[in-house]
Amino acid sequence: xxxxxxxxxxxxxxxxxxxxxxxxxxxxxxxxxxxxxxxxxxxxxxxxxxxxxxxxxxxxxxxxxxxxxxxxxxxxxxxxxxxxxxxxxxxxxxxxxxxxxxxxxxxxxxxxxxxxxxxxxxxxxxxxxxxxxxxxxxxxxxxxxxxxxxxxxxxxxxxxxxxxxxxxxxxxxxxxxxxxxxxxxxxxxxxxxxxxxxxxxxxxxxxxxxxxxxxxxxxxxxxxxxxxxxxxxxxxxxxxxxxxxxxxxxxxxxxxxxxxxxxxxxxxxxxxxxxxxxxxxxxxxxxxxxxxxxxxxxxxxxxxxxxxxxxxxxxxxxxxxxxxxxxxxxxxxxxxxxxxxxxxxxxxxxxxxxxxxxxxxxxxxxxxxxxxxxxxxxxxxxxxxxxxxxxxxxxxxxxxxxxxxxxxxxxxxxxxxxxxxxxxxxxxxxxxxxxxxxxxxxxxxxxxxxxxxxxxxxxxxxxxxxxxxxxxxxxxxxxxxxxxxxxxxxxxxxxxxxxxxxxxxxxxxxxxxxxxxxxxxxxxxxxxxxxxxxxxxxxxxxxxxxxxxxxxxxxxxxxxxxxxxxxxxxxxxxxxxxxxxxxxxxxxxxxxxxxxxxxxxxxxxxxxxxxxxxxxxxxxxxxxxxxxxxxxxxxxxxxxxxxxxxxxxxxxxxxxxxxxxxxxxxxxxxxxxxxxxxxxxxxxxxxxxxxxxxxxxxxxxxxxxxxxxxxxxxxxxxxxxxxxxxxxxxxxxxxxxxxxxxxxxxxxxxxxxxxxxxxxxxxxxxxxxx
Length: 770
Description:
By secondary structure, this protein is mainly beta.
């Protein structure tokens, strides 16, 4: 029986890819537990990455650092080379169900629910906590696990400066300074800047045919944060943080293409200690995001048909006819001249407000502790989108011969209101309310049981998705009805310590993920149509885990078996032009495109039509193995292996197609992943780290139920060397993808749409304390 409460889990040792001598696991309190649980008492598979381990890693961004954590699948293309609307984490084969926090505050885009990697610079991190498996106490988005990133807290007046330079004009620099005014008042000021020319993410053999004019995917980011920590009395402490984060990505390197985000935020926390056992934690936060997005493309065209010269100025008459896909790839459409043009401009504004109150109490010796909490989170977003027709026709312009083979301006391409395909206005709000409780109970000296309950209630309101033409030829969509949903999620876990070296862990839980604002309210049309569905219900995940740990003097081993069932999974379906849909259309699709045959090439719904439903379920199960062996006082080796089988067990019965057929492995989820890491202090002050990761073969796309794009198994190696120049200065050399393996681990509908992972890259830098 799927819903039988089976036992589960293990918390293993803190495997990561570096020496963890400085990490005393007996004393580490895992903040992601929302209790006083130490790492070794966690009822779920938990990993801690220490600051020292971060410094010993070759990774230059947080997303790339987490690629070496077993159970997590994160693309090999760094976040700054990929569109921010698609950046997510796959945990145990299930996508977009992992909650990422920074100091307990969500670090998710309020509209797309993707991870805001640009807001999390590596140099300011104290440690990272990764809890796999559903986490009841966090509610929405924590269906498959939680990643909590803990930033540094000042303990003295130290200052730190870091700087690095690497391949493809990649530069990173940060400065942090602590100011200790008294024992009761401390301040940290932190600033970081990152820039990179990036690299060409499209396969080289398809550039001239499918991507004329495409360049490298470059980016720059800036982060500034002021953190004030106060402790006016023995029973009261807290902090106030003000931050500003900005990024500008040029994904694809087109003239009309960028992702520009600006996000100020504020966070505050107060902890009141009533006595030795009781305390109250009160947190609140707000973030604002202004996201300006412009997508561009290029096409081949005829340079000019005639020219005239008057007073030294040459006027060329030229023609252009832009096409896409297979048509654009025909040799007859390829010549030396390329037009670049905008396909859309998008202006989005988000706002998020949240608060959390948690009361903790330590009880008697058997009933170890108890927490009662309340969470509130409000999301609001507005999007104004303009979609452009592909330019075609002829024109005359006074431009030089040299610029003719390069880019033409928007004015030269005639991007006037008459060339606008559609205006789109999307907006909506979500309010989340929750109350939760959890407790731990020692049944015997060796057996500990923990339980949690959480009730979530959320409202979707003021939703609207309207698409209309500038000429008033059509208008579609409109206001969506307000809806509300509730979710009740329990969890139960147990741990039995046979002795100091061996234990068994087990847990079962139910969690949920609510549809995001983009799922509910973001519709748009262009060459194809995407329709949001305001009637979506939350996904429900039931997870079961069982595992064991062994900890010896030099050897640590861990194993976890897991099985997750997801009901009402939010999936995407596409109906091609002229396809007869046999199922019951979501009302939003029928209202937007009209009832009857979906995909018929109408004015409001041209080309194919994609939409969301809850009519599919997922089953994912597998094994996670990991271990560490200390070869000597100066060397250790870590390894892991994961097996994951994840597939749809039910889909929407219709003429529309899903990207994942029933019973076949989900896309971009390999069955087998393995990693090995060797850390060695070769000589005093010189630390070397060599890391390899094997990713088994996987399907990137299906067509008619058959794999159409696949990626074979591959191995990637990384290397890092750190040398301590003196007690205050370290220098390092980091090499990623040491053997320059060409591969992709992102979804690709066609071979030419693959997005390549980071190629061979070298970085040198230093870290100086003062």
